[in-house]
Amino acid sequence: MSVVGQAASRQQRTGEWLRARMQTRGFLWSVLGVLLLGVLVLAAFQGVSAQRLISLTAWGLMLGGIIGLGSIGLTLVYGVVKFPNFSHGALVTLGAYLTLAVMAVLPQGPRLLPFSFGWELIAGLLIAMPVVGLVSVAVDKVVYRRLRTQGAHLVLFAMASLAMEFFLRSWIYLIWGSDFHFYYSGRDNPALDLILGIRVRADQLFIVALAIVLVAAVYLLLERTKIGKAMRATADNPELAQVRGINTERVIAWTWMVGGALAAAGGVMYGLSSQLRPEMGFWLLLPMFAAVIMGGIGNPWGALAAAMIIGIVHQVSGAFINPTYGPGVAFILMVITLLIRPQGLFGKGGG
Amino acid sequence: MSENLIKGLLLIVPLVLLLGLVLPRRPWRVPVAVVGGALVALTLPWVAPAGPLSYSVSFAVMGSLYALLSLGLNTQWGYTGHLNFGIAAFFAIGAFTSALVTMEAPTGLAAQYTQMAFGLNQPFLVGVVAAAVASAILALIVAVPVLRLRMDFLAIATIGIAEVVRLIFQNERWLANGPQPLRGIPRPGYCLFQSEGCEGAPAWLNALFEPLGTRDYSLLYLLITVVILAVLYVFIERACRSPWGRVLRAVRDEEASAAMNGKNVTYMRIQSFVVGAVIMGVAGALYAHHMATIDYSHFHALFATFLVWVMLMLGGSGNNRGAIIGGFIVWGVWSGTAFLAGAMEPALALISEDLPGRAPYIRWMLVALMLAVIVLYRPQGLFREEKRVSRYLAD
């Protein structure tokens, strides 16, 4: 081989080597870490005090909890049924509004100090979760199962789910109107003083705790129960799962049930932290998908961790850019992930 | 010349072209379109009262705009299988770019009410071209990182880009008046319909439009819109019947074998995505000059993305004529249900006093159901894709 050829092939090898290094998990982690650090440094340069930065980070974790609750369900469904469910946003909204409806019926009890809500919100949450789960199972039976039996292409599923997003949202508009709603209007919600001068509301701590409890429950479901194992088997290879005697239709119904219930929980927490609007789920859709992709499709822990990263970057960057650009921040993080490592932070394959 | 005759003459070209676009490819297409279009155009102004006539002309303008969007989506989805759920982004970029290029930057007191990044005061066609270029640049920014990945990622990313574009136009007051509407977008040839006429136009042209008032302006705009629609239709139709179009289908159906035959799959995908986005950008520019006042809320995911998907899926993905027909049908259904929702209001008031005000959302439900039914029962749409598209093969 000539000297020139050798040089060219070495150059090519260097390129491949570089690309292989760039597509590793570690590189993505470090890019995200540098980004996070950069946002913090930028905020510090804008004159944001260290104390406020810590508070913003803490709030970011809370926001991450809300996004995480929604994205755990989304990632489960994505992993098992294998299509991006665009109607997940409407399920989130539906959960929030169903809780509102339940609370309107129940008598208003005393508030559970230090939280701003009372038992009726918990009751509403516990009723809304299975109801939204059943709604998503029903949608699956009517729409997606028919597509499955036809062996339809992924894009038809995605399109049908977009149709369902608008269908469910139109019901929400018809029943509750387009105005804002609050779970508790005019109730004061003082912040607690924690260590390091962090001031957070007790509700925000509740959101993070609920997210961690629910993701742990999903983890136990997947690892320890028979239906969870069947879910993982169906996600890996539906045909093989069927051959081994797993009723995949039943597994899929359970997946929708769990996914819908978690979406409802996310919606209630989002409604508790701000207010209820028919478009709230659609606004959450982009951060949720970003978390799903960053965490690796089908990975609940990954989705929660990625949601926390998105939440922190969202809140801290809000110190120096318009906070309404939150979905834009999530979008940028998602595009970075897609560029470097489409399998996500915790996905299989690659380095 | 009488008022009705001028109206009829203005209607001839759009009606002939629209008929030609809608009729099937048979030898009798051209003569039927010419004779039928001319007959309808020359009788309509006498038969139809002025109100319904101007309503139907406006309807046809919007129908053609949606047909254009549907045509753009067809190049992306129908021919290449791109799942673009962010049509609103390209539509909005086209509309605002053309508005900024053609408007004059406000000065003095008006500048306090209307803020815009720049106002170049260029002619209409320059605005349309600028809209196409801006839309193409946005498409490249989206396409290059995402198109080499799986199709579902494109759907998520385009939903994201539509959201980001909408947020930018909503928040950045300096760019295009932010949350406030951008008013006074110039309409091409509007001065011809004003009583004093255009300054630069020849005297006979001003004299010709003398009998018409400004409320007849949409007749001229229909002519402009339909001519652009027809030109782009012919362009896309030729491109899709050329080797280029056949490679796109090969990439869509058998990516591996297209790559094995030496086609650069990613490059082809990017090309078709950009071409589709350019058409959407042109539609956006036409929309801005039609409405004369635009703001971010016009580019809602429902009107600017979802409705277009229903149109293309109904008309038939991979069939340009189907895309246009689907556009007109769905726009007709959408406009018609406005009357339906209005008619249902008394009945809805019996159920709950809040319901009549929410009747418009019944239309959302109807179009959502329509798309679900099409996806489930007839995913190929009204008109199937033509499998043999070479000019040298008999159909």
TrEMBL record, chain A:
One of its GO terms (biological process) is D-alanine transmembrane transport. Keywords: Amino-acid transport, Cell inner membrane, Cell membrane, Membrane, Transmembrane, Transmembrane helix, Transport. It comes from Sediminicurvatus halobius. One of its GO terms (molecular function) is L-isoleucine transmembrane transporter activity. InterPro entries: ABC_transp_permease, BCAA_transport_permease. PANTHER family: BRANCHED-CHAIN AMINO ACID TRANSPORT SYSTEM PERMEASE PROTEIN LIVH (PTHR11795), HIGH-AFFINITY BRANCHED-CHAIN AMINO ACID TRANSPORT SYSTEM PERMEASE PROTEIN LIVH (PTHR11795:SF371). The lineage of its organism: Bacteria, Pseudomonadati, Pseudomonadota, Gammaproteobacteria, Chromatiales. It is found in: Cell inner membrane. Belongs to the binding-protein-dependent transport system permease family. LivHM subfamily. Its main location: membrane. GO terms for cellular component: plasma membrane. It comes from the Bacteria. This is Amino acid ABC transporter permease. The chain crosses the membrane at residues 27-46, 58-81, 88-106, 118-139, 151-176, 204-222, 251-272, 284-313, 320-340. It is a multi-pass membrane protein. The keyword Transmembrane applies. The keyword Membrane applies.
